[in-house]
Amino acid sequence: MVSVSKLPYVVFREILANCNASVLSALSNTSRHFNNNLIRDLPRNMFKIKISIQMMAMLETSKGDTSESFFIPYLDCDRLDLKDILESAMFSFSNDSLASLTVSIDGMTRFLKCDIDSLIIDCGHCIGMMPQILGWLNERQQSINELIIKYEAERDVEDLDYFLKNMNVVESFVIYVDTLPDGMRPLHPKFKCDFLSVTDHPSNNWMSLKDISNSDCKHIQLDTSEFTPTEWNTFLKSWKNGSNQRMEYITANIIESEDMMIELTDGLNVVEREESLIRTFVFVSTPCAFFGGLDIKREDEKVASVVIGPIMHDNDDGKQIRALTVVVWPEGTN
C-alpha cells in the first residue's frame, strides 16, 4: 500500500483540498512526517472560519455546502457545565481563561492555515476584556469580514466604546444592544463596512442618526431605532451635501408628528412621485418593490427616494411609529 504522503505533490495537494477539517485533524495524528507534509502542502484559507467567544466557545469551518463545529478548549472550561443556562448568565472570562482561549484559537487556525472570517462576541461573557480581544485580533490579522456583538445593559459601557472605536470590519457588522442605563453618554460611533445592522432599544442614546451620517456603509438596517422627522431631515440634507457617498439603502423608523411631512422635507426640494410608480431595488440579493416616494437629487445627479411605510406600533406616549426607507438609485435606474 502506498503512503498518501508519498504520492506525487499535485495528487497529495488535491487530496488535502478535498478533506474536511475533522479528517485533516485525524490525519495529522498518524505520524509526525505526515503532519509536516500536511502543514507544508495544505492550501491557505481553504475554509471559512467562524469563531464564537462565549462560555460555549466554538469554531466553525465551512467549505462549499459543508460545515463542521468544534468546541474550543480554554483554562478551567472542564469545571463548567457549559449547557447550564444559569451558569452561563453568571459566567465571565478571566484574563487567564481568555488568554488560553485565544491561544487555542490561534493553534486551530494555524493548523488549518486560515484567517478568521467571522467573529461572534457575547460581551456578557467578556466583561472588561474588549481591549484584550481586539488587541489579539488586530495583531493576528488586519481586518475581519464579519463581526457580531451581543451587548447587555449592565455590562461595562467602556468595553463597547473601545470596540466601536478600534474595530476594523470589512463586510458586515451586526450588533444587538439591550436597554442601556438612563443618562449614559453618547458614544458617537463611526461605522465603516458594507453592511451595518443595529438592533437597539428605542430609548437608548448611544448612537444617533448624525453618527450614521458620519459613517461609511452601503446597506444600513436600524430596524428598531426611532428618529424624529427633524432628525431625518438633517440626515437627508447631509446626504444631499455629500455625506455617505457609498450608501445604497437605509431603513429605520420615524416618529410621526402633526407636521411630519413639513418637518421631514423642509429645505430639501423634493419631488413627490405617484404611488402608481413602482421601482425595484435589490437589497442583498433580494428584490424589493418601492411605490412612489419622495425623490431628492444631489449635485452629482444621484437620486435618493424616501418611502414612509405603514404604522408599526404606538409608543407608550401615544406617538405612532412608521417605517422609513431611503434608497439611493444606481445611475440611470431611477
UniProtKB/TrEMBL annotation:
PROSITE patterns linked to this entry: FBOX
Residues in F-box domain copies: 1-50
Alphabetical list of PANTHER family matching this protein: F-BOX ASSOCIATED DOMAIN-CONTAINING PROTEIN-RELATED, F-BOX-CONTAINING HYPOTHETICAL PROTEIN C.ELEGANS
Protein name (database record): F-box domain-containing protein
InterPro entries found in the cross-reference section: F-box_dom, F-box_Sdz-33
One protein family per Pfam: FBA_2
